[in-house]
Amino acid sequence: ISINVSPRQLRDPGLPGMVAAALTKYDVPARNVALEITESVVIDQSSVAENVLRELRAVGVSIVVDDFGTGFSALGYLRRHPVTGVKIDQAFVGGLGVNAEDQAIVRAVVAMSGALGLTVVAEGVQCEAQRRVLANLGVTQGQGWLWDAPLEPSRFIQRWPSLTRLIEVGQVVGGAV
Questions:
Q1: What is the residue-wise DSSP string for 37-63?
Q2: If exposure means fewest CB atoms within 10 Å of the residue's CB, which of 3, 19, 43, 68 is most exposed?
Q3: Annotated catalytic sites, by residue?
Q4: Pure H helices in 35-152
C-alpha cells in the first residue's frame, strides 16, 4: 500500500516510531508499505527530514518520490536520499503513444532509475496502449483508471478483505490511502 506523507510529517522526528508502532500493531510487514513523498521534500536541506527518511528506511518501508518529473527532478538528490523508487507523473504518461517527447522523458526516467537501482511506477495509466508503451519501456508497475477507479477505504476492504490491516496502517500513518 502507498501512503502519502506530507513535508510537515517528515519534519516530525516521531514519525518513524509511529510507523513502526502501526506496523507492529496491525501485523503488517514493512515491505508491503511505500511512503510517498514529493520532490520538494527531496530537495529540502533540513537535517530533521533527512534523518526521518533514513529512520523510515531502517524501519523497512519503501520511500517513493511522487509526481517525479514535474518539479526539480535533480538526480543528485535521488542519490543523496534513501529513496527506493520514483512515480512518473501522469502528465508524461498521458502523452504516451502520441507525444514523442513524453516517451523520451519516460525512457530517460526509466534508464536513470535503473542505473540507481530504483523502482518505477507510472501513475495515471488510462488505456491499454499506454500500458503497452510503458511495458516496452521497462515500467512494470502502474496505477490508473485502466485497472479501476479510486476506491474509498470501505469499498477497498469489501473487494480485498485480507488487506484491511494495510488500510488501517495507512489511516494511522498518513491519513490518506
A1: E-HHHHH---HHHHHHHHHHHHHT-EE
A2: 43
A3: 123
A4: 39-43, 47-59, 75-80, 90-93, 100-116, 128-137
